[in-house]
Amino acid sequence: MSIVLTHTYYLFEDPKEQLIMRPYAPLGLLYISSYLNENEVENHVYDSTFYSKEEQLDFIAKKQPKALAIYTNLMTKINVIKLVKTLNEDPKYGFPKIILGGPDITYNCENYLNTGVDFLIIGEGEQTMLELYTAIINNNDYSEIDGIAYLKDGNLKKTPPRMRMKSLKELPLPNRAAIPVEKYLETWKTHHGQSSMTVSTQRGCPYTCKWCSTAVYGQSYRRRPPDMVAAELLMLKNTYKPDSIWFVDDVFSVSHKWIEKFHEEVIKQGAIIPFECITRAERLNDEILQLLKEAGCFRIWIGAESGSQKIIDAMDRRVDVDVVKTAIQKTNALDIETGTFIMVGYPGEDEQDINETINYLKAANPTHFTITIAYPIKGTSLYNEIEEKIIVQPNWETSTDRDIDFKRTYPKKFYDFAVRRIVNEVNFNKELLKGKNKSILKSLKLKTKSIVAQTGMKLYKTHGN
User: How many domains, the chain?
Assistant: First the structure.
């Protein structure tokens, strides 16, 4: 009797991901694995990142697990559905009970269950997985287990929500020994010159951004004790020797008291590893920036989303765009790299907002920035607001929420060109800031691309589709 924990991210089958080559370990599955280990439940992790679906299926056929738990999200959803159907069609896999968890299932319960899934785990997974698997192997009633969904006589049944762990002290360290960590380190080293690993210190986010999903941990905030996090860093430093750490938390500096204690502990324990993190601008000040730098921080991603206060307010970000700009500038001044996120095509965004975003990025001058076109994730406030304005709703099984389109100020193609304009115009400005001795040809190319993109914006603004 055993359970296999897996996912369906296949790095070498995704051309876009192969261009990026920044894979990270599936921490959620590794936390569940270590929790099951603590409770003496035999489990096997199959990390599909560096392997194929065929190799994954061979592993499942060999293990013949009683249950198979699959993590799913927007990125892996289509592959998850294909895997589920394969397992339900071929007896050589032993017809294990199929369990899904992850952020995408909470508001798509019936859709997932109708693909042949037996159970869904909604919310935090460790305790629910233990109780559900115990019920499965003992043929016990599972209707009293909190935090699951299933079909009964073709009808959706959802049990009461699982109470979240009050203290994250209860969590054992993720079971990294179950995956090929060396492959991650080698991949990073080969493609980027330095290796990177992930660490999680918190669950949930207390903020209210309308586009952000809180499907797993809710609008909450719980934190692992700083001394435990420092001890984990020391273990990683001694065992795997990563060149850097990526803290996966939504708002790393949300608690200044936590940061102060974290700073103290990593120095005391000799656990400093260069790291990068994400936070909000208003949760940074001169003192916190200095503490982060001393604790090893080399890059901070500071959420912006737009350079237009009108759009920031529409998102319910609850921050002043000038506060964000100042935070980026202050971080730069400390020789800490900065990154920021930009979203275009948000409801109500017009050309003036795009121009404000360009001017904002030029003034803030983050080291890195990424841009996405807004898309509505089911269950978010954004989705609820635009649901009646959806103009493209593809087949659920073969698409993701990224493929949904809604009526915007201008056609989506306008925002495709807007992305190109922002990228090229801002990078052109970066070249100018470097001074006269830098590449004139590169600057001219960037400016030309910006002008071409601006022409495309005007074309789609005037003539639509």
Answer: 2
Where do runs of H (alpha helix) occur along 21-125? Answer: 27-38, 53-63, 77-89, 109-113
- Greatest distance between any 2 Cα atoms in the chain: 74
Per residue in 427-465, pLDDT (tens digit) is 999 998 887 666 888 999 999 999 999 999 999 998 765
> With 70 as the cut, is the pLDDT of residue 126 above it?
yes
> Helix or strand or coil: residue 401?
helix
Within a domain: 278: yes
Nearest to 164 by CA among 202, 137, 199, 208: 202
Neighbours of 235 (CB within 10 A): 13
Per-residue CA distances from 237 to 195, 233, 242, 300, 360 (Å)? 12, 6, 6, 21, 38
What six digits make up the tokens of 231?
């001890």
**8 Å CB contact between 400 and 377:** no
- pLDDT, one tens digit per residue, over 336-361 is 999 999 999 999 999 999 999 999 99
Of 312, 342, 372, which residue constitutes the final position of a domain? 342
Cα separation, 106 vs 379, in Å, equals 8
Q: Which domain holds residue 80?
A: 3-158
Give tens-digit pLDDT for 40-77: 999 999 999 999 999 999 999 999 999 999 999 999 99
